[in-house]
Amino acid sequence: MIENRIAELKRPSEEFPRRYLASGLTVEAWDDVSEYYNELEKRELNSASDVEVWISDGSELSAFLSEESSRRYIAMTCATEDESAERAYMKFVEEIAPRMKEAQDRLNRKLVQSPWASALPPKYEVYLRSSRNAVELFREENVPIETEIEKLSQQYQKVFGSMTVQWQGNEITIPRALALLEETDRGVREQAYKLVAERRLKDKDVLEDIFDEMVAKRHEIALNAGFENYRDYKFREYERFDYTPQDCASYHTAVADLVVPVMREAAAERQEALGVETLRPWDMECDPFGREPLHPFGSANELIAGCSKIFSRLDEDLGREFDKMTELGLLDLSSRKGKAPGGYQSDLAEVRLPFIFMNAVGTNDDVFTLLHEGGHAFHNFAVRDEPIHAYRHAPMEFSEVASMSMELLAMPMLDEFYAVPDQARTIRHELQGKIALLAWIATIDAFQHWVYTHPRHSREERKMHWRGLVERFGSGADHSGFEDARDYRWHAQLHIFEVPFYYIEYGIAQLGAFQIWSLARENPAEALRNYKHGLSLGGSRPLPKLYQAAGIKLDFSSEMIAPLMAKVRDEMAKQGRLESM
Ligand SMILES: [Zn+2]
């Protein structure tokens, strides 16, 4: 039984009718839309306003195709056993998406080469910057190398995804085994940790081989595109125009100086609460007081009702928007057989509505997942009236501010799910998790900076460099007897293999979210006003301007982070007192 009612949602909607595409247009194959791309490519542009109309028409086309892709993806993930849904999605990925990319490259070139581009009004600045960048970076000789890397990525997924361990006579997956690290019995945790570590190390050499090849190929791509190293190339490819590798190094330093001490303080408290001699790597996930996991709700409807109240208490508009999602069937929340794992927020770009997918089973994590994805959904609502499709998405460094802030802003209203001691317990737990995440992001990011600026490093050097980073950013758990597990822990971080350098965004956004939360502690109404204002700009401004609009700063310096960490520390202590009352 599929919970969502997306199939009933009519497109195009009366709210956002088509102006360029035929109103009855649907897409089965590339040929259904190729004439539109051809027309755009050939159209004569004789003035700046011609270019504006041309961008708007292209925008309608890309929103139409984006929604097609989202609908197929949603249908597939909501019914994994429906083979026709999978075929439909794969057809889009394999037959339509690559042609779209090629066609889009031709349109980018046309725009960049048009003498009228520079006469466009200022609101097109970000749009033009992005088109120029894409054109400048494109190298035909890199296309086959990208494909080879894609194959290596698939190998990585295969090796990593097929790992299992034997647990009490049953074969279980690694994620299932890792869930045992939350058990209150220390012996169970140790055994689970050992099994996972041993299993992963079995494939250590295969993974090292894959990674060596990836590094070499990526370095080649960078050289082909005229860069000194892959890091600098990747910064440009990700459109990181507003911060530099040097800024990331400042983030690393600030985290080591200001975040790691707070994390280690929490680790020391954990050790005391657990009553153990030394903290081992299998002691980090369980409840330190040996309590059972929280169970904040039963059915998905209870989860929806609780979050609806939270959003409405925060802000009437947000409450209404969330309720509209419920009414229109834009939520598919409960875990059931035949549903893909995980959670995500997607958007239907043509009707301009968000959709939330997750696998709720009644845990505290589920509540935070819905709050997080809710923040993404509010971002979508905030930009509905923006005509340019590309501007209806913010860059990750800001879109995650929308979602991560919502987790923090909602904390005082978690009484919708919990009595006071449990509310305090969950707030403290979440804040500790966010602190640990900031440190882990620094570890992963610093590692990749080193790897790609030293493309000819040896495996031994790589191992030693990683070890140094664990010492610098780790919680200080005692790994004796498990040195290899520690030294190759990065093998489990799929981003390093599959989406290199894509990770610091979460750290940047978390700092932005902490800034919004910090203001909310003093003045919740103002913080929320800022939040909504920042969201309303979508991706129409450069990153620092988006931050500014939300009343916060894109800044990773110690001066900015120190007072924030003092407040987080203070809040954790306060919640700790409430928790034990
Ligand atoms: Zn997110």
Concise description?
This protein is 64% helix and 4% strand. It contains 22 helices and 5 strands. α10 runs parallel beside α22.
Structure overview:
This protein is mainly alpha-helical. The protein has 22 helices and five strands. Strand 1 (164-167) and strand 2 (170-173) form a beta hairpin. The chain starts with 30 loop residues before the first helix and ends with a helix. The mean pLDDT is 95. The site of zinc ion has 4 residues, from helix 13 and helix 14. Zinc ion binds at residues 372, 376, 400, 403.
How would you describe this structure in keywords?
581 residues, mainly alpha, three-stranded mixed sheet, two-stranded antiparallel sheet, globular, binds zinc ion
